[in-house]
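Subgroup meeting minutes
Present: P.N., E.W., G.H.
Scribe: E.W.

1. P.N. recapped why we're keeping a running log of single-chain structure predictions: easier to compare across weeks, and new members can see raw inputs and outputs side by side.
2. G.H. added today's entry (294 aa).
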Amino acid sequence: MKHQIVTEDCQERAALYALGALNQLEARAFDRHLQDGCEVCDAQTREFEQVIDLLGESAFQVTPPDYLRDVLNARITKEAQSDTAHRATTAEVIPFPERAKTTAPLSPPKTGPLRPLIPWAIAASLLLALTYSVIAWRNDRRAFQAANGQSDVAAMLKENTELKEKLSSENQRAHELAQINLVLVSGQRKVVTLAGQPVAPSSSASVYWDMQNRRWVVTADMPPAPAGKVYQLWFVQGDKKVSAGVIPSDAKGHGFTVVNVPADIEIEAAAITLEPQGGSPQPTSEIYAMAKTS
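Output recorded in log:
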């Protein structure tokens, strides 16, 4: 049945189809639906494919685990059996006795210890969540535009710009969470929480320390940096302060960075200051957030 208007079911199936999240039977059924000439579903599918392409261009690469091949093979086998059973119930099949074969039962999958949540699984779930958030955002935006009588062309151009900005922001957030997850599943890790200091008591930051790979994943929520200023992170050892680089932040003051930890320094504390654009060799302002690391 062809759709005359966009429905939630139409959007959901188009999104899952673009993501490749439908099983074989569902994907074939949706293919037939598109081939029947449903212009509504075809347009929705094309839009979501463009969204996936944008995400793919900016997504970071993660090497899949070795056992992923076994997982995929098990799924393919299961769906093939499901497809065969479906065909058997929808068509009469006359067997050839002389060619009948017995099929050995599949061995049960080997069981093992539970694995921690892995980065590519995090990315997949975030991608699904992002897709649905884009659906909701787009619907709300179009309803607002219709209520305010905006012209179609101007509204589409503005919506396209805003959608790209939202996708960029959401993809950055997904990357940030995946980097944090990489630390949380590592063997040697520590989480250090930086507290706001008197100059900015509402400031806060977290250092996710991958001690094995000598790496810090840092997130910070600070007052928006004034024009010409940037937040800078410092390794502190006694009176010695070593720059760990600037912390890129958005208009709301949320910052994120990943830095390597020098091997020739015993870090006693972490600190954040507000510095001129590009950073400073040594701190030139009061400390905005700080915490001891041991």
